[in-house]
Specification:
43% of the residues are buried. Strand 6 and strand 7 form a beta hairpin. The chain is an alpha+beta fold and 324 residues long. Strands 3, 5, 6, 7 and 8 form a five-stranded antiparallel sheet that branches.
């Protein structure tokens, strides 16, 4: 008779974090194209909500590929897959939405992107979003959407000739490190609290939450748990007025379980982990997550810290699943 280990993992599909402001850096390209006009932004949001609601009504993530891309599409597709497997419905976006801020940088060539802060009325979180357009014939796609608490104050973004200033991912001028170096260091600290980079990154709420989850998993008897974090290339960063940067960082997290002979690890009914691995894990298995982190790198010598995040399970696999 198999013994079953039951563990409740913290679902982090929409964890919001409190924090402070962020800075952004100017690109060197000749100013030619404004990312989007105000009227166009309104149309982009209207189209996005219409398509998303269609996907929700159909409980099918396929329509999302016409309005989303990258990690945000993977996260939302994972959420739809969970709903399908658990036979659950999702709420359509019918609440009035306030777009509280829009920043449209100027670029010398495609791709173009713009920054927006969106809040559903009555919600306690803001969605800090990036929409990107790859070419003049491509649609605007949502590519990042970390969430912050409504009382999280974002930093003032630097402007030149009225336009927000962007910063290259590897430009660390005026900061303790570049946005790309900060993303890599942040991933290393998440993977190992004793890493050499630990003293360079603020011990923020998201890091504490992830460490708590990892500690819970690591405490399971008969289970060897390990976790890795990898940072993608940073594509979007804005210069803040303090000389720092506000960067959108995508992190891939992988949780691996090696389960002892005669044991099976399962998750509570209705959790995303249970939806992906309904029979549990007997042997070895892995759950993969994407997290989109809004990372503030202060001007001067300040330590980078997360202001918010958006994430969820995107895939899973197991060498040998339990049969019941």
């Amino acid at each position: 008779m198999r013994r079953h280990l039951r563990v409740l993992l913290v679902a982090t599909c929409s964890l919001a974090l409190a924090a402070c402001a962020v800075p952004h850096h100017r690109g060197d390209a000749k100013v030619e194209k404004t990312a989007a006009r105000t009227a166009e932004v309104t149309q982009i949001f209207d189209r996005y909500r219409e398509v998303r609601n269609t996907a929700i009504e159909l409980l099918d993530a396929k329509p999302l590929s016409t309005v989303e891309t990258g990690a945000v599409l993977a996260i939302d597709s994972g959420s739809f897959e969970v709903s399908q497997r658990l036979a659950k419905t999702q709420q359509t976006d019918t609440t009035a939405v306030d777009v509280t801020d829009v920043l449209t940088p100027r670029f010398g060539s495609y791709p173009l992107w713009f920054f927006a802060v969106v809040r559903e009325r009555g919600s306690d979180v803001n969605r800090v979003q990036i929409f990107e357009r790859a070419s003049s014939v491509d649609p605007w796609l949502l590519s990042a959407s970390p969430e912050t608490l409504v009382d999280t104050e974002l930093p003032e973004i630097r402007r030149e000739s009225g336009a927000p200033v962007t910063v290259k991912a590897r430009d660390g001028v005026g900061m303790a490190m570049s946005a790309q170096d900060a993303a890599v260091a942040y991933a290393k600290v998440l993977a190992d609290p004793e890493s050499d980079e630990a003293g360079q990154i603020e011990d923020d709420s998201f890091i504490k939450q992830m460490r708590s989850t990892a500690a819970t998993n690591g405490g399971l008897k008969g289970v060897t748990f390990s976790q890795t974090w990898v940072a993608d290339d940073v594509k979007y960063a804005l210069r803040t007025s303090d000389g720092g940067a506000l960067a959108f960082v995508t992190l891939l997290r992988s949780d691996t379980y090696e389960v002892g002979d005669g044991l099976t690890i399962t998750w509570p009914e209705g959790t995303p982990q249970q939806a992906f691995l309904a029979s549990g894990i007997a042997g070895s298995g892995k759950l993969n997550y994407y997290h989109q982190v809004l990372l503030y790198i202060p001007g001067g010598s300040g330590k980078p810290r997360a202001l918010g995040q958006y994430g969820g399970v995107v895939s899973a696999d197991a060498d040998r699943t339990a049969t019941g």
